Amino acid sequence: MSLAESWDRYAVGSKPRRTMNAKGDTTWLNWTQYADHGPNESLLGPVAGRRVLELGSGSGSNLAHLVTLGATGQGVDIAPARETVARERWGNLPGLDFRTAEATAFLNETDETFDVVLSIFGAVWFVDPDILLPLIRSRMAPGGILAFSHLPPGGQGPKPAKAGLRHDRTLDEWSRILTGHGFSDVRVSLIDPPEGRAVGTMLVRALAA
Fold this sequence. Notes:
Layout: H1 3-12, E1 51-55, H2 61-68, E2 72-77, H3 80-90, E3 96-100, H4 103-109, E4 114-120, H5 123-126, H6 129-138, E5 140-150, E6 157-160, E7 165-168, H7 171-180, E8 183-191, E9 201-208
Parallel strand pairs: 1-2, 1-4, 2-3, 4-5
Antiparallel strand pairs: 5-9, 6-7, 8-9
Helix pairs in contact: 4-6
């Protein structure tokens, strides 16, 4: 079974995102693995008029939220089932597009430039950062923002996951790796879990130098 097939199988079995959060919002951005928890899109600054790329866009809900705020969005996911769900749910939003592709293949092929690149439990966690980060940087506008989140590291180096390899890095390692690949003002933090839960979320933000 190929990597794309593994991810597609996983996607088909995933539970769809709710249509409304606890506040009654129909679109929202969620950086963590917990519902209604963690920071919002303010981490990115104003997004109106900005070109946003999400690597591992899933059902498209996070990207769709940014588009409702005035951004133009391109979602990329390796699983065809993700594109199908995203188009069914968000295909009516102007300025939003989804594509099935592996992240490095998309970045190698596109000639577009992006102001914001997101990866929420997405490609940055599953692709070798020494391969992926230079490609991301090459497609970013000067001063653009890269932001991604995933679970805190459970150890050094890649770890087996449900589909593919998980690239765990410590806070200091992410800072060093990003700086080495042309990013600046790197901010790495851990979001505490909600009460009663044990595992937090690593959140990283950096600028294209």
